[in-house]
TrEMBL record:
InterPro entries: HTH_MarR-typ, WH-like_DNA-bd_sf, WH_DNA-bd_sf
SMART domains: HTH_MARR
Protein name: MarR family transcriptional regulator
Top-level lineage group: Bacteria
Keyword presence, Transcription: yes
Residue spans crossing the bilayer: none
Pfam families xrefs: MarR_2
Keyword DNA-binding set for record: yes
Residue ranges annotated for the HTH marR-type domain, each copy included: 16-149
């Protein structure tokens, strides 16, 4: 079997047919590609950009809300928010009634970075979608919805 550049590669192991393995492999490649793009154009990691994008699109949030939206680990979110705060991209505001709660919003610099990178990330998404026809996109999104529901089914765990 040859890869995309014509180099001989070993056959896929039996787990190569596992849906979760294939999804993880594709996700890792797409994430690495996005990380390179974001590092070059904005000096951000993909996780940092996703947090900025969620706050930029939804306004003031908490780390718990971001964790639910993005299905990201709270520790990963916390470490990245700390770095974004140190870079003056995200403002972290302690709740006056509950000291454990922190409200998050973009600074002017964070908003400018979000607005300057969003078109590039949207163009990347369009380029990815353009690899599929409308029927494939529709089927793929429906498949992801079904798999996400299955991931929430306690009987499958």
């Amino acid at each position: 079997m040859k890869d995309s550049i014509g180099t001989q590669r070993p056959p896929d192991p039996p787990i190569g047919q596992f849906l979760t393995y294939r999804l993880a492999r594709v996700q890792a490649k797409l994430n690495a590609q996005a990380n390179r793009l974001l590092k070059d154009c904005a000096g951000l990691t993909l996780t940092q950009w996703r947090l900025i994008a969620l706050i930029g699109a939804n306004g003031r949030n908490t780390a718990a809300q971001l964790s639910r939206y993005a299905a990201m680990d709270k520790g990963l979110i916390s470490r990245n928010l700390k770095a974004l705060g140190e870079e003056n991209l995200v403002r972290i505001i302690r709740d006056t009634e509950d000291n454990r709660l922190q409200h998050l919003e973009l600074t002017a610099e964070g908003r400018a970075l979000f607005e300057s990178t969003l078109p590039r990330m949207q163009a990347r998404q369009k380029a990815l979608r353009d690899r599929l026809d409308e029927e494939e996109v529709s089927a793929f999104l429906a498949t992801l919805d079904k798999l996400e529901q299955a991931a929430e089914d306690p009987d499958l765990g």
